Input
Amino acid sequence: MARLIRTEKEVEGRFEEVWIVVEEDPLEQWPEGPLEVVGRPAPRKDGPERVRGEARYTADLRLPGMLQAAVLRSPHAHAKVRRIDLAPALALPGVRAAIGPGEAHGLEEEAGFAGAAVAAVAADTFAQARAAVKAIDVEWEELEVVLDPDDAVKREQLTAEPRTYERGDVDKAFADADVVVEGTYRTQTVLHNSMETHQAICEWQGDTLHVYISTQFIWGIRQAVAQTLDLPEDKVRVVCEFMGGGFGSKNGPDEYTFVAAELAKRTGRPVRCALTRREENTSAGNRNATIQRLRAGARGDGTIVAFEGEFRNSVGWSGWNASTEGPMRMLYDCENVRSVTYGAKLNTPPMKAFRAPGFVEGTFGLECLVDELAAKLDVDPLELRRRNYAASNEGTPFSSKNLEDCYRMAEPHWERRHEVRSRSDAVWKRGVGMASQIWYGGGGPPSYAWVRLGSDGRATVITAMQDIGTGTRTAMAQIAAEELGIPLEHVDVALGDSARGPYASISAGSSTLPSMGPAVRAAAADAREQVEDIAEQRGLPADTPLQEIVAVLEESQILGKGARGPNPTGMSVLTFGVHVVEVAVDVETGEVNVERVAAIHDVGRIVNPLGASSQVEGGVIQGIGHTLSEERLLDPESGRILTTSLDSYRMPTIADVPEIICEFVDRPDEHLTNLGSKGLGEPPIVPIAAAIANAIRDATGAEVHELPISREEMLRALREAEERAREKEKRGAPAAV
Amino acid sequence: MELLRPSSLEELDGGLLLHGGTEVVPLLREGLLETERLVDVRGVVPRGVDGAVIGAGTTLAELEVEPAIPDALREACRLAASPQLRSMGSLGGNLLQATRCWYWRLGYDCRLHGGDRCHARDGEHREHAIFANEFCASAHPSDVAAALVALGARVRTNQRELAVEELYRLPDEGNRSTTTLESGELLLEIELPPAGASVYLKAMDRKRWAFPQVGVAVARHEDGSPRIALAGVAPIPWRIEGVDDLDAATPLPRTEWKVPLARALVRRALAALA
Amino acid sequence: MSALRLTVNGGEHVLDVPVGTSLAQILRDELGLTGTKIACNEGHCGACTVQIDGVPQLSCITLAHAVEGEVTTIEGLREHPLVEAFVRADAVQCGYCTPGQVVSAAALVAANPQPTREEIRHAMAGNICRCGTYPKIEEAILSWQG
Output
């Protein structure tokens, strides 16, 4: 029965209260452990198409008569268009249309960052469009540029009111604490750099707009485009069958979508608007830089009594103030916590969600600080984390939390530290570090799926969702196959088109599997029950194989439908984990080798252990990039981005990859849906930076407080550690006689 | 634009010379190079190793597995760029590659582009030079150049013969070029003098596919003396006599870290040859 | 416009395109071979890797008119055992870089059928994968012969 509820919806750590219609979720969860199909490793259903280069991404689509768009972007970090003349562009060969500020959503007169979109041209070829964009005559009025987050906070130039949080009596707790540690941690701006750049092709057919787009959220695009263009949602069709990575940057439509739609309208032809790699690095979003001033207090027995944090997020021209303070509030059982989080509005490109936004940055600061506390208390870092284990989320029970099991599973890896350290020599110092992980990832309603079953015993799961490369098709097929009791090879998944299936959740916030998986299971169960009815009417025994039961149906089909049920009320649905990292540091050259990462995660039931290990490895590797080599740089004078190409913005290569061991608690969350699964896309990137920094301290005594840990930062920290040691030796040395 | 493919040196007549294209093609596309005439010189530049003579058209990929060349050169080739770039890029092209300075690559009106200031000096310069950085703070990115300078290699062009070291000059007010190459001049062959052991050490921010933060080439010459050349520390490949010369470095605020790094690598390289 | 003769995956093509057009553009836009991806279009990422006479090269910075030799794209390697090895090892996530990875790997194993991990890392370092499938790529290449 349909049920209307008011519920809290969470995506990427942001909550909103929404009304939704949910259906009951009457299915009992499957038992723990590997089943027939679910819980067993499965290669990707769409693996062959992708590997063979047959999968068609938005970038590969060629619609008849399609034009190419190019976008004029502001060279200034802050400026206003005083006058713009599109005529010189329109006069060039191949040019079909040109639009300026205000003529498409996202083309604006005031450019708040270098790379902001101002005007656009459609031409027969991209080269022609690009040449035409260069010919547009613009007179700029340059405005004051603010690039420094501290400066912005001082001027109260913020994207939103500062967010404050307080529990307990923090001042008293610090006054009573036996040990207090404090530190300032900085994280850099990093870029998503999905391999397929942001792009869309728009085509009008009658009054319907067809949008082919590289996106993480088909239905979000449909809704946002309809709203912005004032169209009924049914008049917007969104297609994304394959997409080349998003990592949070492709959750909504941006200027390129609206530029393509407007130019398509004006020319009567399909128009592609695709960002170049350079534009991807200036205009497609980023993980914002942070400054974190943190303090922790503890009793001599290792009980953490107080946390305090001041967080400054360099949000940029737009974006939201992510929860950098989240881990400090939630990871430990600490009675007294106070934080304030500023979102600095700067003349820099906008922040966009990037794989666990806020928590990646906040966990670096917090988990480094906790290790410094452990050192000062002389308590083993793993033991300190166990002693301050949070049994609830500020009083709200967890739907499930098996972080204790993660810690137990971490022990053998943690035990290696004595042996690892002993392999140090005069140049290469080795050490082991750890960090814990907390993040969301429970997903939520609504999401719907259909299952179509033919007389050949083959099933198709139909839902208008996207597979962003996380193995969605495969996991959904596994769930349907399990419920129907048929082989995985007999299940196909049709997705990627808003016109060809029901509403599906966003693929962000680690929500794809926990949001859609239960709906697919419910749809398969609905189909299975119909098959059972047929078996009964045919007088077949209950254990008759499905294929035999449906064999008489000929052209008839069985259609099952399913919906995602509600999340458990009054409970916090969160994911947990711990990383144990081994590093070697060349103390003369500052080279850091991450040698081994043990990543242990608690995300409920694992549907596909093979795909899950790929998710973990991917998160760890992206996190290693964030930790060691990636940084977006700006010219401090003009605010222009300097690292616009992949030779200067350095993501890890295969040669940078350590040995990665993936382990899962793999225990269904008994309160969460008919599946008991949480998401895994984001958790593995959360703790890795802190674990590396803590391993570096263990190896060398050097305290790194800044990401990335470049050679410059590493050599600085080593020099500082050396001076500290010398100072200590001097003080500790007996007086001269 | 036209593409000419001469088969003899005599046919050369102006235009922009192109070999592997790994540098020229992207620069053309970005508008940092302009031409109406591209000249594919693969038909006229020698390729392959013949004793101590290496054709300037030999690719880095061919050289990284070539047992007959000195260790420093082989290692410099092996650690340069990416596998695909090494299989496209020629030895000659590598020697003539432009700086990686982001201001230059983004077309800022900097001194190398004929402007009147070095944007990196006042701006973002953490990957830049620690020597000779007053006029232009760019850092020379060629691993191979440092190796060849240390090895004392000579280069033959279609116009003259000179030491590889003499191929480079510091840019100044009157001449913004970092090479001594004349218009229409084409590198043909590299000749290696007899040398003893040699070594190339490279600090990168990735384990592979990165330009040198600091590259150190050291070769022991016939008289037993080591010759040291550095990549990534000056606008051109940079010679020093010994580790103490690093005391004379003039780093910018954010390139100070390169000095101890270079010191460590030079010591290590010398020790490796000892 | 300038005439151009190309051999791609064993087939001859005669085209007339402007000088300056990249091989990647020809493959994708003229020949419909969209398995070759363009991700940076300036020679930094390896997504556009093709083989020319068996040697992996970057088609996005290769001028079509300067191509000497036979071009092999992912479409010409679809029956290579590496394809099955990549699928089996789950060496694919979003898949956008994957055809380029297979093209590089095919050149590696042709020259060195049993590469070590170190050799794989050296030969594959020019193919960037933002999803981080690297460990699985390594496994796929180690086990490519089944």
User: Anything to note?
Assistant: The longest strand of chain A covers residues 304-316. Chain A has a mean pLDDT of 96.
